Sequence to fold (236 residues):
Amino acid sequence: MNKKLLAFDIWGDYGYFRRGYTSTSTITFPFPSRTTISGLISGILGLEKGSYHEIFNEDNSKIGLRILNPIKKININLNYINTKGGFLLSDINSNPRVQVQAEFLKDVKYRIYVSLNNDSLMEELYCNLSEHKSVFTPCLGISECIADFKLAYDDLFDLNMSNGNDVNIDSVILKNKFDLIIEPGKKYGIVKSPGFMNSDRIVSKFLEYYYEENANSIKVKNGDFYLIGDEKIALY
Fold:
């Protein structure tokens, strides 16, 4: 039986996918990493934290992402409280608050593509999305950035790979899988983010992507892609 694939949209006023190597003034990835998407889907399904890494490993799953709104960033000051010093501010003797500038995404919207080898989880995910239900509240990076979501298509698709030359891919693409054709008027970016984690929540592999900041397609010389409706997407 062919593997199935579904697509859903997720959006919100703000997103914050912090780059782990930044500390004092934090900056955000332009879109969620594969590990963040795995956590988001697990939250919709109600899988416990740390229990789902096997489900989303390279052999058992495929994920894709399309940027639907142009990438916009703003800076917001966050007030951090050192809760290690006490539960109440009066219990914290010195410097109870630290103000940190953080980079957020604004007017965020993505399309997520999912294919899991576990057929029962795929069916459960499809049912939850079609009924607009989630076990845990979905968010775009942190709990303060609550997200809404809906199915992009009413049906599940068969997972059939195609190949072509000079193809316009609608999703973000892996840098090591495609040769980019640069087109005028487009604004390209490269980003490297966590791809997979082991059961100890340690990143076992990073993935590097090309993306187009204004939500346009990316033209490539040659490569494998999947047809979803009228979209051509890359999975990883």
